Amino acid sequence: MQIQKIIRLLNVFFEFIHDKKNNYKITHTKGVVGMSYFQDDYPVHTRDFIEIFDLSPSTPYVLADKKKDLFGFKEIKTKSNTFYNAEAIRNYRLSKTKENKPGEVISFYNRKGGVGKTTLIHQQAVYSVMAGYKVCIIDLDSQANITKSFKIERPKEQKTWLQIFLKECEIKDAIHEVRKNLHLIPANNRLSRLAREIDPHDGFTQFKEDFDKLKEVYDKIFIDCGGVADSTVFQTLTTSDVIISPAFADDYSEEGLELTMEELEKASKLGFNPRHIIVINSYYQKETTAKQYKKLYLELYEDTVARTVIRRAVDFTKATSEQRSLFEFCYDNKIDNVLDDVRLLWHEIFNPEQFEKLLKKRAIEIEEKKAKEAKKKAKSQAKKQGDIHIPSTESNISQTEHIAQ
After folding, report:
1. Which helix (H) or strand (E) holds 247?
2. Which residues of the chain have pLDDT under 50?
3. Residues 163 and 30 in one domain
4. Which domain does 400 fall in, by range?
5. Residue 136 phi, psi dihedral angles, 5° rounding
6. Per the structure, how many domains does the chain have?
7. Pick from 10, 49, 353, 364: CA 20 to 30 A from residue 30's CA?
8. Could you report the per-residue pLDDT of 169-209, keeping only the tens digit for each?
9. Do residues 137 and 6 both lie within one domain?
10. Which residues in 309-322 are b (16+ Cβ under 10 Å) and which e?
């Protein structure tokens, strides 16, 4: 234990040195900020706090100073960044909430697997906690990828939704606290039995009673559905409030979306009409094929397609391999990158009014960034050539340009 404490302190020291060299960000690849200082709570950057609640730039600092004890604020400061604990953000949210609304069930489903579904759930669930919500993730995929991403020990021995459905255990007995305000009901390969235990003659809302119990406790319940159109998936779809279908911009995902829409059409005929959102994931704008499929999705599914796209990034792969969220792996308070894509998608789904404001804000920030870069390049050229040359300001296409298209 003593050695671990020393290692953590050394990690914090080196993170501080890193931040002094790069005074625009703090990177905590090993989860140092969240795990050592905030004691298993997520760190929330000032920028996120401001944007989630649409606050003035000075408000977080005032709250952390004047209302520290009321909300339980803890903070860590570096040369250019300030982080707060997500628990304090939750307490602040509760103080602003006038009435207790039941939670909502958000299921992630695409008939074709391998589309980044689990990774996207992980990011959206973590950001929901950072936004002050209490979250539960239910792993209903017997491959148990989301369970593995949270490093649940001995998953084969854990209780799953199967035991809950069969009344072999209470819901609380299957829940694991993976972080403050982030809980998980895990999965294992035995979960595949669940579809065989569901009697279709008992109706299409057999999960509803247990989902409703969870909605009394949690603000958001994220569900990782398997890629097989079985009874487990259909019972989930008919009792969900929101269904999110991640899809790559390729023929494989397009076929998966077609099959997914067939499942949702069956549910609709039975009177179930959850909100459906298609998210273009791992998008690479330089690929002609990707552009063609993005255009096709917009033509086929129109407003169902999210305006935010999640761009391809190596950090996603690295974070997944280290079983961490992007916010722990490569925190960056810059805009116009994959981390910001995750933020914008969250706002588009759960905070639409703020989403529109952020789009306008991002457009201004990106133009300012381009102008600054152009000015810097022009100055450098002038020094080298003895005259002033105004360079092109073209760069990788931004999120606001994606949406404009």
Report:
1. strand 242-247
2. 1, 5, 8-9, 11-36, 388-395
3. no
4. 358-404
5. -125, 135
6. 3
7. 49
8. 999 999 999 999 999 999 999 999 999 999 988 999 999 99
9. no
10. bbbbbeebeebbee
List, in sequence order, every residue forming a beta bridge with 55; answer none if it has no partner.
Answer: none
What's the Cα-to-Cα distance from 40 to each of 8, 182, 258, 269, rounded to whole Å?
14, 10, 41, 45
Nearest CA to 149 out of 29, 35, 319 is that of 319
The whole-angstrom separation of Cα 41 and Cα 129 is: 9
Q: Are 307 and 403 in contact (CB under 8 A)?
A: yes
Contact indicator for 264, 237 with CB cutoff of 8 Å: yes
Within 10 angstroms of residue 394's Cβ, the number of other Cβ atoms is 7
Q: Pick from 119, 75, 145: which is nearest to 329 by CA?
A: 119
Domain match, 180 and 317 both? yes
Element (H, E) at 265: helix 251-269
- The DSSP code for 281 is -
CA 343 to chain centre: 7
Closest by CA position to 48, among listed 116, 106, 128, 117: 128
